[in-house]
Fold this sequence. Notes:
By secondary structure, the protein is an alpha/beta fold.
Amino acid sequence: MYLMYVDESGDCGMPGDGSPTRYFCLSGLVVHELRWRDTTGQLLRFRHWLRGKYGVYHDDELHAAEMLNKPNKIAASLQRLKKHERLAIIRHFADEIARLSDISLINVLVDKQAKVPNKGEVFRWAWYTLFQRFENTIRYQNFPGPKNTDDRGIIFPDDTDGTKLKKFLDSMRLNNQFKIRQPQGAFVYKNEPIKVIIEDPVLRNSRDSYLIQVADCTAFLLKQNIQPSAFMKRHGGNAYFNRLDPVLCKVACNNDSQGVVRL
Length: 263
């Protein structure tokens, strides 16, 4: 069984409606059930290290965007740190994520200035794509680490719109048509319903899950890589996404050197 923990960065609003962001990012951390304990144990050891170096408690959430942009919303142990120290924590976190040898990070990026009609389509397009990449990578046994011939997958999103996500998966299990480019360049349509993703998405509060906090950090760094804030650009944070290269799921998109599915 593969478990995928998902979080987002940016918003689904359209630029013409006042949204400050051009991009909406989804990131999913995928880990096999047989490596779940080892992975969470490694993250716990990292949190012990953070406690000793920065005084950040084990149950304090590492929410990357709020750590830099909304310090009044983060834990007191993080509020007392200087902004450059909070950025250093994000950098250390990225380096620790890159050392999680049994995970894969699937990333989807939607450019809202492309032909996307409304924010509902931004949300649907991103999640459909993430579901499909998760499904395909399980079916073709392209995730690292242990695997079984009949592996399945289950999804743990941050506490978002669970009703919509359930409808998306239900729909894809019944009718899932998509375009496939032929060798000569023409497109054909194929209907291939989702088969290996089981159950409804299980919503989790990111405060209670180190793995969703990894997905949050990944999505934040992806967005900052494409559309960095002035602070991140000035301090080199726009390049932190590159630190995750060892664990990026590059088979998710063969046309991108980092495997990012760019819509």
